[in-house]
TrEMBL record:
Origin: domain of life: Eukaryota
Keywords on record: Metal-binding, Molybdenum, Oxidoreductase
Sequence ranges assigned to domain Moybdenum cofactor oxidoreductase dimerisation in this UniProt record: 260-388
Record domain Oxidoreductase molybdopterin-binding: where: 53-235
Enzyme class: oxidoreductase
Gene name as annotated: LOC111457425
Cofactor(s), names only, from the UniProt record: Mo-molybdopterin
GO biological-process terms attached to the record: sulfur compound metabolic process
Protein name: Sulfite oxidase
An MF annotation (GO) of this entry: molybdenum ion binding
GO CC annotation terms, alphabetical: mitochondrion
CDD domains: eukary_SO_Moco (cd02111)
Provenance organism: Cucurbita moschata
Length: 393
């Protein structure tokens, strides 16, 4: 691509905040401490998790950078940044979550394959850019289309990024055309994050943001958009990010039997306490995040201080001082919800949190029930152990 420098090593990696927990250096994967996540409803860019499959691409000439629209369409087109910026700009508050979030806890049950994420492989940002539905109209695809005249039913996003899983080829993923052409799905070609231009870690100069869907489909460093008949055949659509039952192992796996994972299930995590925390006896504030995919709101978050025998309901909010109401027009439907409750803890115990979304979907109680060999979608009840003493240790 014109204007692109693709680094052959990791010497050109961008600077990162020292507080990040590095889960892999090459390619770079890191997450913030869990306590940082709940310090701000909109996650600062520095503390937004970094998920990469190869070296970070570097676009050095923004004037020459372009994205091609091709495939099963009548009028292929080359779009430059000035063309995309001429379209109406939208700001969408959306939480992106890696499908492997909480993988470390799942691996304690049985070994899984993948980056060892704790609970912070997600973040909430205000993404700014053009709606993909408006971009597709530029090549003759009307809004709310499910197929093109030439039989295109899926929209494939291809990255500048190169990764070993694609044998040195580009990272790619797709979503159905019906979702891509629906303006209410809020799929963006984003060039801003929290009011600033994207940085290199998060897809500069242009990325896709697919709200409510696992982060693997929000392709960074966009190179091309192809309208195709079948879903993308890339590695990360066909040989990864699929949900298998606990009975499947690497000896009997058949990738073709499962669909690529799209929406993420209901999830919640306690962020005010670590996995094993030493506290003083008395009142303890338990707070964290809850989120569900597909635009589903959070109807309830329940917290237990006796290992899950009894629960109390936590308060939920997106704005300080304003109670959150699931599916309210004033609520950010693609974004996480913070929860908080004050409980009395007098002895060593296990504190548990679980959420219910607006479709009444619930989190499974045990991680064993959702264990899978790739360690994705660990949405089991979140548990932390507390040890009570006379003073903090």
């Amino acid at each position: 691509m014109p204007g692109l420098i693709a680094p052959s090593d990791y010497s050109q990696e961008p600077p990162r905040h020292p507080c990040l927990r590095i889960n892999a250096k090459e390619p770079f994967n890191a997450e913030p401490p869990r306590s940082v996540l709940i310090s701000s409803y909109v996650t600062p860019v520095d503390f937004f998790y970094k998920r990469n499959h190869g070296p970070i691409p570097l676009v050095d000439n923004i004037e020459r950078y372009s994205v091609s629209l091709n495939g099963l369409i009548e009028n292929p087109k080359e779009l430059f940044m000035k063309d995309i910026r001429m379209l109406p700009k939208y700001n969408v508050t959306a939480t992106l979550q890696c499908a492997g979030n909480r993988r470390t806890a799942m691996s304690k049950t049985r070994t899984v394959k993948g980056v060892g994420w704790d609970v912070s492989a997600l973040g909430n940002a205000v993404w700014g850019g053009a709606k993909l539905a408006d971009v597709l109209e530029l090549v003759g695809i009307p809004k709310f289309s499910y197929s093109t005249k030439k039989g295109g039913k899926h929209v494939e996003f291809v990255s500048i990024d190169r990764c070993k899983e694609e044998n040195g080829g580009p990272y790619k993923a797709s979503i159905p055309l019906g979702q891509a052409s629906n303006p209410e799905a809020d799929v963006l070609l984003a060039y801003e994050m929290n009011g600033e231009p994207l940085n290199r870690d998060h897809g500069y100069p242009l990325r896709v943001v697919v709200p409510g869907v696992i982060g693997a489909r929000s392709v960074k460093w966009l190179d091309s958009i192809s309208i195709i008949a079948e879903e993308c055949q890339g590695f990360f659509m066909q040989k990864d990010y699929k949900m298998f039952p606990p009975s499947i192992n690497w000896d009997n796996i058949d990738w073709s039997t499962r669909r690529p994972q799209m929406d993420f299930p209901v999830q919640c995590v306690i962020c005010s306490l670590e996995d094993v925390d030493h506290i003083k006896p008395g009142k303890v504030t338990v707070s964290g995040y809850a989120v569900s995919g597909g635009g589903r709101g959070i109807e309830r978050v329940d917290v237990s201080v006796d290992g899950g025998k009894t629960f109390v309901e936590a308060t939920r909010y997106q704005k300080i001082g304003a109670p959150y109401v699931a599916d309210s027009p004033s609520s950010h439907k693609w974004a996480w919800v913070f929860f908080e409750v004050t409980v009395d803890v007098r002895q060593n115990t296990e504190i548990v949190a679980k959420a219910v979304d607006s479709s009444a979907n619930v989190q499974p109680e045990k991680v064993e029930d959702v264990w899978n060999l790739r360690g994705i979608l660990n949405t089991s009840w979140h548990r932390v152990q507390v040890r009570v003493g006379r003073s903090n240790i």
